[in-house]
Amino acid sequence: MPKGITLGALKIVLGDTGLPSMAELIEEIARARRTGRPVAVHCVTREALVLVLVALSQTGAIPGDRIEHAAIVPLELIPSMRDLGLAVVTQPGFLGHRGDQYLTDVEAADIPHLYRHRTLLDAGVPTVASSDAPYGPVNPWQVMHDALNRRGPDGKVIGVDERVTAAQALAGYLCPPSNLTAVHEVASTLLGSDHRRELVRPTMEADLILTESPALEAIELGQKNPVVMTMIEGRVVSHA
């Protein structure tokens, strides 16, 4: 394998329809386990979520197993997700991009379960945001702002209790993909009085950005591109 390339989780796609049998899903998970890999399961319906939770309860979960999207998460399934040690990668940008469409197309009973974020974090399920580009907005600053306000294009809020703080949104982007469980620790560090010293220390690789306003403030204000300088390995590669 080329230098710098690592083997990550095995992607398993559970479609909106035509779900695999329990035996087929268990075999897919077993295939990942034979090479020591966790699984990343694409899951956008409650039926798919129930299926994967039952399968993982039989195969056993390992660190790094995660649910991609978790578009519909009924409250009664959250304890199982927590007990299995799963992480969730959600897409609040979908709400900002087409939330009005969800309010029209999704069954009314499922609206409160859409793209949960705060409830999962509070329950002990590590949850981070991503873009899922090109299907959602690629700009991470937009995605993080959407995680705070959860407003659709028409201005209506979808899941007010699922709003997170700027620190929680940013922490999700700062966590290494191999350790999404660090999201709580990183969020706490961002809120600490000495967070800059904690996040940037001698001997670290100097992969840094400089923003025109503090990052948490930029997220809260919804700034589209607050970055004025980017540094990679100590070398400035772009600046405003």
Automatic annotation (TrEMBL):
Domain Amidohydrolase: 25-237
Keywords tagged on the record: Hydrolase
Record-given protein name: Amidohydrolase family protein
Family annotation (PANTHER family): IMIDAZOLONEPROPIONASE, PROTEIN LONG AFTER FAR-RED 3
One function term, GO molecular function aspect: hydrolase activity
Organism: Leucobacter denitrificans
